[in-house]
Amino acid sequence: MKRLLMLLILILVLTLTIVNPVSADGPPWHVGNQKSSAYGVAADISTPASAPYIEETGTSSWVSTPIGYWIQTGWHWEEGMASAKSYYEYNLPGNPPVQQDVSTHSWGATKSYCLQFNGYTDEWEVYINEIKQWDQDGLDEPDITVQAMSEVHTSSENYLYTQFENVVYMDSDYDWFYFNEDNFQNAPPYYYVYETDEANYLCWGPYED
Amino acid sequence: MKRITIVIILVVIVLGGIGSIVSLRQGDELGIQAVSAHEDDVDIQGINGQDIADLVTYLEQMGVPAKYVQIISDDDWDPPIVIEFILRSASKSDEVAPDDVIHLNIIAHAVNLAHNRGLNVGGFNVTIINTEGNEITSVTETTDVEITPELVPPRKLENNAVSNLLNQEFPLHGMSLDNLDVSLDSEGIRWVTFELSVPNIETANAKLSDFMLKLFPAMVKMNLERDTQVAVYQVRLNTSTGEPLLKYINDLQIGRRGWWYADGLTKEWFSTPPAPKLEPMPKSVSTPKLAPAPVPKPTVD
């Protein structure tokens, strides 16, 4: 009887581990998909229907290059803000980051966010709703991993509910393709929900078993 | 010989035309020599010379070490006009110096407010050069950003009243406040600088995150509830021996922040993207049954 009970506990633990694989524990928590060897990334990113609860600091949802001299664009919602803001962010060589809010991203709305390497000018560029916001030279060469993710800062009580649609990457011929690699990451208590393919998903949480 | 001379002249004219619509007078220092303050009747592609002169004077007053300014044509921006600056870094290498990010943000502040007042440029470009004159990087940014309107004059509180409020209400989380500067710039806009110190970087790493994470919402709240009208605030953190650990600027008026931090200083207070991780995880295939209903939090509006 004791053995049976232990076996049942073991099965329960294994099941929970498989259902809820733990990536790096936050904060910050990052959830979403990535694509290797890209020259750009773009996505239609939505805000939830109304302002999500923030216990502390905030959340953001974006397309980005990885840590290093990263480039990022998306929307963020932080304690103290009157509305979510579309922004872009970049680093100067040496490490100083700069973040510029551009406009309000209304609740329940979708905007397209794009960053790409321009092979003619050797510059990285950021576009929001297809309008150019920023470019910079002297940064990392392309052919790097790109990310389309949500991020939760400081508190796992912060709410997250972000739809990513039409997530695409640019290849070395400067053509765009839908994300086609399954490099999804969960960050419990925040999870992704796979919808039709690797290019359409929901990032949400917190969810505790 | 005559033909060669004519060809050379033509080439010079064509190249000059491609490079810029108008190249304002260059000097060793950014200053009113770029466009004379007396040339207020100059109109270049809708750009008023006095606007440029005011901008240049403002940057000079703010101690921004820029070399020259010019207006160029660039179809990527709307309107297709970009104002260019060269920022002289104290760096000897291919990486920027600690003050460069502050100077870049002051240029962004000045250009965006000038644009908001009617300066008809679609973008601004800053090329940062090191002490050898070599380019470190070149950034071009939009001028089409939202401006927070209520942080402009007329001022509602005097600087010393704001200083008293800041002193009373901002917990320093164990760091020492060496100086708190509250001042108005030449446009009457309020700037605040916290000069903090800690014995060493280990103390900074233990104390800084709590302070920085609370600073932005607290400053916004104070502006809204106490009429402090702080448009830009800076944090300078040094060790007690004067070694710089952090130079931070947050421009609430144009929604912009930037910072330089020393190697080894905690990054817990700001967000970064993760390192690449390309091992997939099992799919969550179903729509969450307990999808969180977005709950509005009472925010400071």
Task: Describe the main β-sheet of chain B briefly.
Answer: 5 strands, mixed
Helical amount of chain B: 25-40%
Overall helicity of chain A: under 10%
CATH architecture title of the largest domain in chain B: 2-Layer Sandwich
**H-E order of chain A:** HEEEEEEEEEEEEEE
Judging from the principal axes of the Cα atoms, what is the shape of chain B? globular
- Report the mean per-residue pLDDT of chain B as an integer: 82
- Rounded to the nearest angstrom, the radius of gyration of chain B is 23 Å
Global shape of chain A: globular
Total strands of chain B:
11
- CATH third-tier fold name of chain A: Jelly Rolls
What's the domain count of chain B?
2
Model regions low in confidence, pLDDT < 50 over at least 5 residues of chain B: 5-43, 285-301
- Read across the widest sheet of chain B, the strand sequence of neighbours is 7-8-9-10-11
Oligomer: heterodimer
Q: How many E-type strands of chain A? A: 14
Could you name the CATH class of chain A?
Answer: Mainly Beta
Total helical elements of chain A: 1
Topology:
The complex is a heterodimer of chains A (209) and B (301).
Chain A: H1 2-19, E1 29-38, E2 40-46, E3 58-64, E4 72-78, E5 85-91, E6 97-104, E7 110-118, E8 123-128, E9 131-137, E10 144-152, E11 160-170, E12 176-178, E13 191-197, E14 200-205
Antiparallel strand pairs in A: 1-10, 2-7, 2-11, 3-4, 3-10, 4-5, 5-6, 7-8, 8-9, 11-12, 11-14, 13-14
Chain B: H1 2-19, E1 43-44, E2 47-48, H2 49-61, E3 66-73, E4 81-88, H3 100-117, E5 123-129, E6 135-142, H4 159-169, E7 176-184, E8 190-198, H5 201-226, E9 230-239, E10 244-251, E11 256-261
Parallel strand pairs in B: 4-5, 8-9
Antiparallel strand pairs in B: 1-2, 3-4, 5-6, 7-8, 9-10, 10-11
Describe the structure.
The complex is a heterodimer of chains A (209) and B (301). Chain A has 209 residues and is mostly beta strands. Chain A has a single domain, classed as Jelly Rolls, CATH 2.60.120.1270. Chain A has one helix at residues 2-19; strands at residues 29-38, 40-46, 58-64, 72-78, 85-91, 97-104, 110-118, 123-128, 131-137, 144-152, 160-170, 176-178, 191-197, 200-205. In chain A, strands 2, 7, 8, 9, 11, 12, 13 and 14 form an eight-stranded antiparallel beta sheet that branches. By secondary structure, chain B is an alpha+beta fold. Helix content of chain B is 29%, strand content 26%. A five-stranded mixed beta sheet of chain B has the order 7-8-9-10-11, with helices on both faces. Chain B has two domains: 19-142, GMP Synthetase, Chain A, domain 3; 149-261, Diaminopimelate Epimerase, Chain A, domain 1. In chain B, strand 9 and strand 10 form a beta hairpin. Chain B has five helices and eleven strands. Classes of the chains: A mainly beta (209), B alpha+beta (301). Chains A and B meet through strand 1, strand 3, strand 5, strand 6 and strand 9 of A and helix 3, strand 6, helix 5 and strand 11 of B. Strand 6 (97-104) of chain A pairs antiparallel with strand 11 (256-261) of chain B, so a sheet runs across the interface.
